[in-house]
């Protein structure tokens, strides 16, 4: 977070100095002056290059944080794929037939990624052109240039991985052009390999500021792009430079650390002993065990050696909880980051606390008052229920009890479902983990969890039976609902349907906290854990993939078991390891945080990925590919809105549905604006998508 404060302070000081110097000479102040308000007039010092880089980081932060209340930010992370989905069955990442070249979601990422490219290229060009600029150290010039090249390369990595190609340029754009050539995904990867390799050579081993790029981040992405290109030995070597300490002091966390390290059990009495408890620590916010507020979240703790790159966000309780630069260009969308609300049970937060009317005209809550109201006798004078809403007077079962969700405050103060929202309304996006992710190990319907002792799939991290606002467990409330339905066999209004229960999702404590900073403030409940862009756990899995590609399955198993051992899961054997096992392990370790779309894309329709094609030989845009097979098997089926989704019977004979993701959806459509504006050179639309240009 401190980098954000430093960046803002730099800008504030610069503005203050301008005002101060002008005020010292009233006569000069009144004279007319001509200033060059462009890149040529600004980039004249090392500090100005740092400020230029700050605008690049701001763009990354916006892409990660700025639209969390909408589906946009989640697309890179695999929204609608095999691990989690959108709560709306009609969204473009839910109903893939609606994903077209005119879709706002298809346009969102190119709009801002190309803006990031130009900002980064501006810094690169100005560093190259600024021969008279002096730098504080002999290596600083190339270090700053490498940061800019890295951020440009990250943008192109996303563009190639999401859209199958990119309009590539290595220089700032100063005038309109209509003749860009679209490079293929493979051509972009080749350029990224050279760029990430150069960045690794020139970046520092320690970040310039909290949240800035290091050698290890470049080596990590170099390993990834080498995998995509089929350069498997180079991929293994790049990942090894991160793991063995060549590129900095990074290691998996296996001891307790950070703001809650003194807490031996979670709020429900589950053990947080190391090494498993260190995984829980990774995701804690700046709230400490005793309720005080630390200077930062655990992602930025100086002892956290697992963080390679972390996107920063920061707030102040004294500024109405607005983020200080962390959400990029669209600060108004992100008064308080709603990550916590996106991965929390929706029903007690207001999403399903509606009413029904039975055949006798009596109103009742769908999930009973226990699921949507605080305990009987609770009053707003009690700080635990201070934001309680007034219940509807015509619902007898409420008996004057306070609602746990207050539409005016957009808060839920239930200890079980406490979430941060926004001042203007509740989170309007709830993300569903797929059933494959939420079922317990051994479930007959299938689960990603292959060991019941895996801490990452335990109730500590995935609370399946959470407490409702009344203090009763959801399992208790559900039994009461079922008993009520059984008592009214001739009245269907008491029965639950798939549409009713689809919102009953587990609480993911990976994206949530039971303690929040500034809880005594009017606008409290802040969830402020910064976002992991790269953890070394993912680097281990990249190396495991590189070793699998070289038929070194025992080496791949060793890397995977470093991660599984920390989680308390049984070790895998060399015989277990194939690409599906590695993808499953990525889901177990990196659920919701990895940029999964990029991973699934580079493994699809890629003849260089021989360890994929050996198991999935059909790789095309019309029949099948790896991404399609994963989504078809594990994607969310929207049982309450089947539409055109394929129906099938599960092992119990129940009709279920599959995602309508098609093979061509492994890349997104190139936005109409890009095709239309490049009038001098035709940019072809991706296969499977229609175009009007």
Structure description:
Helices cover 36% and strands 6% of the residues. The protein has 22 helices and 14 strands. A two-stranded antiparallel sheet has the order 1-9. Strand 5 and strand 6 (363-365) form a beta hairpin. The longest helix has 26 residues, at 104-129. The two termini are 45 Å apart.
Main pleated-sheet profile:
2 strands, antiparallel
Overall pLDDT metric = 86
What is the spatial order of strands in the main beta sheet? 1-9
Total strands: the figure is: 14
Rg for CA atoms = 26 Å
* Fraction in helix: 25-40%
Features:
disordered N terminus; single chain; globular; 693 residues; 22 helices; mainly alpha
Structure at a glance:
The chain has helices at residues 2-23, 26-30, 39-42, 46-65, 104-129, 140-163, 185-202, 215-229, 232-243, 276-281, 339-342, 368-372, 435-438, 474-487, 498-501, 536-549, 553-567, 579-590, 596-602, 610-613, 626-634, 672-677; strands spanning 84-86, 165-167, 182-184, 307-311, 355-357, 363-365, 405-406, 411-412, 431-433, 462-463, 507-508, 531-535, 647-649, 655-657.
How is this fold's topology laid out?
Blueprint lengths: L1 H22 L2 H5 L8 H4 L3 H20 L18 E3 L17 H26 L10 H24 L1 E3 L14 E3 H18 L12 H15 L2 H12 L32 H6 L25 E5 L27 H4 L12 E3 L5 E3 L2 H5 L32 E2 L4 E2 L18 E3 L1 H4 L23 E2 L10 H14 L10 H4 L5 E2 L22 E5 H14 L3 H15 L11 H12 L5 H7 L7 H4 L12 H9 L12 E3 L5 E3 L14 H6 L16
Antiparallel strand pairs: 1-9, 2-3, 4-12, 5-6, 7-8, 10-11, 13-14
């Amino acid at each position: 977070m401190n980098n954000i404060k430093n960046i803002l302070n730099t800008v504030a000081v610069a503005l203050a100095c301008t005002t101060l110097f002008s005020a010292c000479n009233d006569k000069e102040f009144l004279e007319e002056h001509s200033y060059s308000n462009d890149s040529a007039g600004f980039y004249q010092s090392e500090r100005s290059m740092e400020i230029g880089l700050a605008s690049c980081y701001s763009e990354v932060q916006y892409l990660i944080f700025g639209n969390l209340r909408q589906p946009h930010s989640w697309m890179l992370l695999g929204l609608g794929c095999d691990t989690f989905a959108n709560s709306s069955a009609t969204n473009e990442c839910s109903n893939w037939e609606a994903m077209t070249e005119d879709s706002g979601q298809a346009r969102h990422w190119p709009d801002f990624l190309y803006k990031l490219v130009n900002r980064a290229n501006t810094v690169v060009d100005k560093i190259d052109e600024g021969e008279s600029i002096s730098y504080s150290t002999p290596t600083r010039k190339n270090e700053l240039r490498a940061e800019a090249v890295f951020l440009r390369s990250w943008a192109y990595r996303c563009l190639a991985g999401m859209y199958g190609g990119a309009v590539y340029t290595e220089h700032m754009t100063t005038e309109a052009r209509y003749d860009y050539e679209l490079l293929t995904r493979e051509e972009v990867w080749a350029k990224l390999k050279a760029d990430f390799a150069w960045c690794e050579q020139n970046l520092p081993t320690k970040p310039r500021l909290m949240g800035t790029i290091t050698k290890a981040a470049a080596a990590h992405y170099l390993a990834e792009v080498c995998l995509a290109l089929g350069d498997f030995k180079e991929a293994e070597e790049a990942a090894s430079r991160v793991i063995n300490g060549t590129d900095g002091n990074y290691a998996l966390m296996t001891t307790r650390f950070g703001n809650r390290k003194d807490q031996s059990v979670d709020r429900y009495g589950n053990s947080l002993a190391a090494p498993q408890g260190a995984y829980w620590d990774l995701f804690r916010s700046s709230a400490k065990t005793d309720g005080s507020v630390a200077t930062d979240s655990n992602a930025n703790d100086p002892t956290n050696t697992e963080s390679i790159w972390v996107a920063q966000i920061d707030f102040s309780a004294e500024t109405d909880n607005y983020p200080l630069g962390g959400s990029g260009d669209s600060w108004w969308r992100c008064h308080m980051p709603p990550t916590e609300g996106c991965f929390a049970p929706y029903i007690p937060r207001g999403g399903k606390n509606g009413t029904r009317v039975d055949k006798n005209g009596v109103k009742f809550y769908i999930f009973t008052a226990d699921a949507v109201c605080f305990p009987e006798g609770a009053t707003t004078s009690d700080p635990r229920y201070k934001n309680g809403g007034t219940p509807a007077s015509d619902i007898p079962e409420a008996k004057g009890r306070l609602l746990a969700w207050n539409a005016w405050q957009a808060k839920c103060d239930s200890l079980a479902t406490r979430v941060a929202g926004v001042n203007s309304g509740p989170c309007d996006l709830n993300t569903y983990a797929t059933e494959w992710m939420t079922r317990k190990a051994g479930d007959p319907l299938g689960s990603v969890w292959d060991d019941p002792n895996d801490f990452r799939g335990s109730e500590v991290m995935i609370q399946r039976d959470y407490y409702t606002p009344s203090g009763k467990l959801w399992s208790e409330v559900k039994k009461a609902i079922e008993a009520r339905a059984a008592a009214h066999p001739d009245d269907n209004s008491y029965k639950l349907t798939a549409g009713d229960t689809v919102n009953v999702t587990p609480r993911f404590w990976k994206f949530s906290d039971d303690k929040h900073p500034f809880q005594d403030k009017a606008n409290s409940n802040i969830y402020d854990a910064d976002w992991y862009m790269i953890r070394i756990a993912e680097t281990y899995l990249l190396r495991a993939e590189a070793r699998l590609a070289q038929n070194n399955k025992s080496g791949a198993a060793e890397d995977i078991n470093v991660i599984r051992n920390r989680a308390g899961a049984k070790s895998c054997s060399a015989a277990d390891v194939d690409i599906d096992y590695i993808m499953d392990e990525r889901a177990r370790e990196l659920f919701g945080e990895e940029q999964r779309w990029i991973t699934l894309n580079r493994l699809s329709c890629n003849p260089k990925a021989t360890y994929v094609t050996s198991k999935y030989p059909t790789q095309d845009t019309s029949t099948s590919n790896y991404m399609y097979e994963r989504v078809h098997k594990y994607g969310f089926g929207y049982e309450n809105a089947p539409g055109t989704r394929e129906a099938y019977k599960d092992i119990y004979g129940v009709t279920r549905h599959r995602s309508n993701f098609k093979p061509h959806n492994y890349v997104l459509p190139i936005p109409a604006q890009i095709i239309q504006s490049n009038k001098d050179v035709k940019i072809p639309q991706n296969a499977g998508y229609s175009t009007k240009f």
